[in-house]
Amino acid sequence: MRKLLQLFCVLTILFYQTFGYKILLYNPKFAQSHVTFTGKLADTLAAAGHEVVIYQPEFNENITITGSKNKNIRFYTMPRDPKFEPNFSLDSLHGDLFEEESFSSKMNMATSMNRIKSGFCERVLKDDKNFEKLKAEKFDLGITELFESCGYGVLKKIGLKKYITTFSSSVFPSSVGLLGVKAHPSYLPGVMGKTTDQMNFPQRIGNFINYFVESYMIKSMFNSGSEKAIVKHFPGFSMDDFVADSAFYFVNSDEHVDFAQPITHKIIYMSGLGKIQSQPLEKKYTDIFNSAKKGVILFSFGSVAQSHQMKSETKKAFLEAFAEFPEINFLWKYEKDEDQIAKGYSNVFTGKWLPQNDILGKHSELTVDFLTERQI
């Protein structure tokens, strides 16, 4: 009888372990790189056998992807309100990305983001029809990104108490401060600063001041707007406390290349998520590699910063710098072929779109360096 009982217990445990968790991810169509990041996380969880559901309110009409490719993922969506910020684009918030921003322009961007996030979150939190369905799902876990902080209001709405916070970039001081990690401005540069971790005394003073400015701006852009909307539904709600209560904080960074800094057990590095196997390059690219005596440099600013928007003198400065290294070929992501920006420069090749993953996959065979945006 005892052996039968033991066998029953073992079989029960094994049976339970064959089923994954039911996980909800909040992934609104606000910024494409963030949609892609959360989508890859959802794909990874679904591939591991978990039941994954994505709640995806629509806002930015320029985003046509869901971010996920796994066919087993289920979606709940909220259509875009055409009357709310009808001409929204991230470009309009950033201004000139190739010129140093003044303090006033940064504050204006933070104020605009605060207003937009607040209005968008107010609309999301009124989606009672979807919330009733989501609550009935009885999720085991919720996941939302710090940048998309209205997700915390969604979790409150459906009564989901176990959740993870994510961030699509690296760890920075004002974000981990929410988890109780003290600031160390004497050696840890802020995300908006210009210094490295090697600072002289005046730079340390500047970095110390910048920490408080950065904390205010990050909170204004990421959290304050959503918090205003959530408080209307849940008086006394504190965004800082809710973030601090996250079970984990997933960051899209590699701890070995990030600045050395104190962390907590909640911070999990997860760079390379959803990495795609590189494919063989087309002939026009292999020809570029083969003709380079000392290798190839990929030069790209991602999807937000458009190279064609640079001032003429900035473009010329880059081209002249490239010309100083004739033994190296430069692949430049440049969005307007009609500009013929590389005309007369034999070692510069441009394209509206470049197979970045495949190009970087050649690193084991040929010397490749790259200059690109940080969310990679």
From TrEMBL:
Protein name: glucuronosyltransferase
Matching SUPFAM superfamilies: UDP-Glycosyltransferase/glycogen phosphorylase
Family: Belongs to the UDP-glycosyltransferase family.
Pfam family, one: UDPGT
Gene3D superfamilies: Glycogen Phosphorylase B
This protein's UniProt keywords: Glycosyltransferase, Transferase
Record EC number: 2.4.1.17
Any one GO MF annotation of this record: glucuronosyltransferase activity
Catalytic class of the enzyme: transferase
InterPro entries named in the record: UDP-glycosyltransferase, UDP_glucos_trans
Reaction(s) this enzyme catalyzes, per UniProt: glucuronate acceptor + UDP-alpha-D-glucuronate = acceptor beta-D-glucuronoside + UDP + H(+)
Keyword presence, Thylakoid: no
TM helices/strands, residue ranges: none
